[in-house]
Amino acid sequence: MNTCPENIVMMMHDYLDEEISPEHEKELKTHLQSCEACKTHFHELKKTVALVQSTSHIQAPGNFTQNVMAKLPKEKKKAGMNRWFNRHPLLAAAAVFLILMSGSLMTSWNGGDELSFTQSDQVVVEGNTVVVPEGETVQGDLTVRNGDLRIEGTVEGNVTVVNGQQFMAGAGGVTGEIEEIDQAFEWLWYSIKSAAKELGSFTSNDNE
């Protein structure tokens, strides 16, 4: 066949596909009568086509796919988790961060009941009460834990009182939100929300 014209094989395929022209069919038959190698190759092609046609009616059982999937080795949970972490690295990092932070916050909550508050030169402490004196302005958020908060001046931010009470006197005012938290889990939820907000702000700035 190496010395035969290249279009002979193409004619074989056209003949088997029933797309050959009468002229090419005549040329092919004439060539096959004089070339034993092409004749053998042509018969092999015809056998292959006949075999494919004879098996065209065979169909796989309806549950074939389910049976094959059931016999495959089951994926380990660890592998599934690793794939999820690889696909969502940012969410994975945030989840781990929140879990670790939750543990530290619960430890911190149970660590004592001493008065603590956001350090500011504009506040004073009277016993167990943190006071924003009249005429003073605290710039930013103010948090008081295990004590009360009395606002006579102004807080330009959010105010949070944990395990205590907040009240305003005179012309005192707060430009942000005021929240009182009395239970450990409320404090935990508040801290998680705050951390998530900061994390979202960080990732947003990082993407920019």
TrEMBL record:
<protein>
    <recommendedName>
        <fullName>Anti-sigma-W factor RsiW</fullName>
    </recommendedName>
</protein>
<feature type="domain" description="Putative zinc-finger">
    <location>
        <begin position="8"/>
        <end position="38"/>
    </location>
</feature>
<dbReference type="Pfam" id="PF13490">
    <property type="entry name" value="zf-HC2"/>
</dbReference>
<keyword id="KW-0812">Transmembrane</keyword>
<keyword id="KW-1133">Transmembrane helix</keyword>
<feature type="transmembrane region" description="Helical">
    <location>
        <begin position="90"/>
        <end position="109"/>
    </location>
</feature>
<comment type="similarity">
    <text>Belongs to the zinc-associated anti-sigma factor (ZAS) superfamily. Anti-sigma-W factor family.</text>
</comment>
<dbReference type="InterPro" id="IPR041916">
    <property type="entry name" value="Anti_sigma_zinc_sf"/>
</dbReference>
<keyword id="KW-0472">Membrane</keyword>
<dbReference type="InterPro" id="IPR027383">
    <property type="entry name" value="Znf_put"/>
</dbReference>
